[in-house]
Amino acid sequence: MINFKQPQLMTFFCCFLILIPSLVQGECTCEPEDEDRNKSLALKYKIAAIASILVAGAIGVCFPLLGNVIEALRPDKNLFFLIKAFAAGVILSTGFIHVLPDATESLTSPCLNENPWGKFPFAGLLAMTAAIGTLMVDVFATSHYTKSHLHKTQQNHEGDEEKTEQTENHLHVHTHATHGHSHGSVSMLERADSAQLLRHRVVSQVLELGIVVHSVIIGISLGASESPKTIKPLVAALTFHQFFEGMGLGGCISQAKFKGRSVAIMSLFFSLTTPVGIAIGIVITNAYDENSPTALIVEGLLNAASSGILIYMALVDLLAADFMNPKLQSNGILQVGASVSLLLGAGLMSLLAIWA
């Protein structure tokens, strides 16, 4: 218990109260820090970052696509479920631990006006809005593609049935009816497979959109920095980050069964996003001020939207879809393995926040 009657303690307490505001204000500066700037050394780290992140992203996104070569990596195998659960944990952690806090920090910066940025949690609002928007896009896109595909399928089956009736008029009525029943069963299975395939394609495209948005921002921020002290730990962190995210996206692309050209374009686009962002940052280094109100607002809003997309995709389209899969539901060992893999991915990605 502090006795405020003692002069020394009272003096110390008063001085402490007086110093708190100045200490807090001293940390909040909108001026760029010149102490640890080293443009030539920073450029070397940036070039290393471009090469490292490019290779890591390419390996990560291509690894799950090797199912045609490595049987264990096919979407119907247990190992694929474990890899995808790990990658989903990484994406979920990216949204909650890395992107959303960065958005909150940008939009609550002392460099911005207190009204309105300091009076309302815009980062959370935009993340929520982006998640709801992703749900709507997810639903409408899947519905549109499914209806379009079913319409084409029905037209094809009607044409096939007309041809079948013309060529099988001489067959027994019972035989023809049996054939029709079998044909209908096959048609139902084809429709279910087609709907699931369309679903995977929508998921992979929306997920890539969410990843690309924050990858560009990360790249530009790193490329515009001239502090080796800041860039050095980010190189390792972003390398692992890009590798694990690539695994998650690659798993979705693998399940979508795109044609070779589409797979190559999506994989290349993901791999190049962050390195291109870094290159853009290098070009605009002299003109870019990360503490300017415009930069803070743009980065904050885009990061918040990206976090909402990533969190929705990880929870709904990746984890819920896989953990409710009949194959995993009927296999207790696989359930435990997928759960451990999920926690491991989320935990390791969370630890990267120490260096990022």
From TrEMBL:
GO terms for cellular component: plasma membrane. It is found in: Membrane. Keywords: Ion transport, Membrane, Signal, Transmembrane, Transmembrane helix, Transport. Its main location: membrane. The keyword Thylakoid does not apply. Residues 1-26 form the signal peptide. One of its GO terms (molecular function) is zinc ion transmembrane transporter activity. It comes from the Eukaryota. This is Zinc transporter 5. One of its GO terms (biological process) is zinc ion transmembrane transport. The chain crosses the membrane at residues 45-67, 79-100, 120-141, 206-225, 265-288, 300-321, 333-355. Belongs to the ZIP transporter (TC 2.A.5) family. The gene is LOC107897846. It is a multi-pass membrane protein. The lineage of its organism: Eukaryota, Viridiplantae, Streptophyta, Embryophyta, Tracheophyta. It holds the Pfam family Zip.
